[in-house]
Specification:
Strand order of the largest sheet: 3-4-12-9-5
Shape: globular
Number of helices: 16
Helix content: 40-55%
Strand content: 5-15%
Largest sheet: 5 strands, mixed
Length: 411
């Protein structure tokens, strides 16, 4: 039996913490916007794994192999979605400059080679002591209360501070940076554009200071880097900063929150991790699979292409559902069970192919250290079930909870 996708939730719903939207006017099915979209994914994998959504003129892709194919085939499935839907005049008016998330080769390859400098294993490893300090500082603030909102008190500020420090933002300007981080992903287009203008102006000043007084940091490295003998333009630099702010923050926030929701559903998990911290890395991978921080991506077909027996026309958008692929029975045995020692675990939570998330090493180490410190300092930690879980609005690809109050006892 075919389960048709009935559009019910408009992208423009307001929220205090809404990580943006796929594209103006895109409407999601109601089941996809819940905290438990996984039964719907299963139904679609079984009944209509390649589904045409006539209202939005796009295709939904649900099975692991098909999702992986779309993500790894930039020739037929372009990432330059925004460029394909904007006129040159619109690009000019919006001062449009795509990030590497929205570029295809060869420009994507050129810029990515620079971006990866920020996230090499060696660079990320050097951040570990500072990440540990930040986690402890935030836990110190709630240590005497016995209560913590994992999102507001830890998962949200941690990656914001790390990214801010990578960009050379001084501590006294951190509140402004947090404000911009919220506003940039606001569904309010005017608010988002204003935040981007303010942040670009601020970061331009910092960048200009680095030109005069170079430091051993990311901005100086980007300023000195060249592609084919040319330095990055100011617009390319600003696009990279915005990418760091949004992609570097939201993914880690949702990873930490989603993992703790999963740990709490399986109480023995926390005891196992506390007793054997060496299991934390594989537990993080299972959390990435089980409740992926990014549930879907967006591509546009560059030519007529057949996938799963369906012909996708050139110019049509395609939505590969990562959250569904990561629950595919043909890839993961007993996929709806949370198993922290699952191996192999070839999830697609960070994407696949040329657009595999460059910030994945940083996100992983931030989550790993957060859990190590949490379980070391707290002998018990349980979700406050008097407060129902609320999903961040599903207008974007991101998946997580708006708040996660928990109670704890000190070790």
């Amino acid at each position: 039996m075919t389960t048709s996708i009935q559009p019910t939730h408009d992208e423009d719903q307001p929220s205090n913490r809404n990580p943006g939207r796929l594209s103006r006017g895109f409407i999601l099915p109601e089941l996809a916007t819940s905290l438990d979209p996984f039964p719907w994914y299963r139904t679609m994998r079984e009944s209509e794994p390649i589904h045409y959504d006539a209202r939005n003129n796009l295709w939904h892709i649900f099975r692991y192999n098909d999702v992986q194919r779309v993500l790894t085939d930039p020739t037929n499935f372009s990432s330059e979605v925004a460029q394909s839907t904007m006129t040159e005049e619109e690009k000019k008016q919006s001062n449009f400059e795509p990030s590497i998330l929205n570029l295809d080769p060869p420009r994507h390859r050129q810029l990515r080679s620079l971006v990866t400098q920020a996230f090499t294993p060696r660079t990320v490893a050097r951040l570990a002591p500072r990440i540990t300090e930040i986690v402890n500082e935030h836990l110190d603030r709630v240590a005497n209360t016995g209560k913590i909102d994992i999102i507001a008190d830890l998962a949200y500020p941690l990656p914001v501070i790390v990214i801010a420090e990578l960009l050379g933002v001084p501590p006294h300007d951190r509140d402004r940076f947090k404000h911009w981080s919220d506003a940039v992903v606001s569904p309010n287009t005017q608010e988002s554009r204003q935040a981007i203008r303010e942040m670009r102006g601020y970061l331009k000043e910092i960048t200009d200071q680095h030109r005069i007084d170079p430091k051993e940091d990311l901005i100086t490295a980007l300023l000195s880097a060249q592609i084919n003998g040319k330095h990055l333009t100011e617009r390319e630099l600003m696009s990279f900063y915005v990418l760091l702010l949004v992609a570097g923050n939201e993914t880690t926030t949702n990873l930490i929150g989603n993992a703790l929701v999963s740990f709490d559903e399986y109480p023995e998990t926390i005891d196992r991790l506390r007793g054997n911290p060496s299991l934390i890395p594989t537990a993080v991978e299972e959390a990435l699979r089980f409740r992926s921080p990014v549930q879907r991506m967006i591509r546009v077909a560059t030519a007529d292409v057949t996938i799963g027996g369906q012909t996708i026309k050139a110019g049509q958008m395609v939505t590969p559902w990562i959250g569904s692929a990561n629950r595919d029975e043909n890839q993961f045995p007993d996929p709806d069970s949370f198993e922290i020692t699952r191996t192999p675990n070839r999830h697609l939570a960070f994407g696949h192919g040329i657009h595999f998330c460059v910030g994945a090493p940083l996100s992983r180490i931030e989550a790993k250290i957060a859990f190590e410190v949490l379980f070391q300092r707290f002998s018990t930690i349980r979700r406050d079930r008097s407060v129902p879980l609320r999903r961040i609005p599903a207008a974007s690809a991101f998946f997580g909870v708006q708040e996660l109050p928990m109670t704890f006892e000190l070790a």
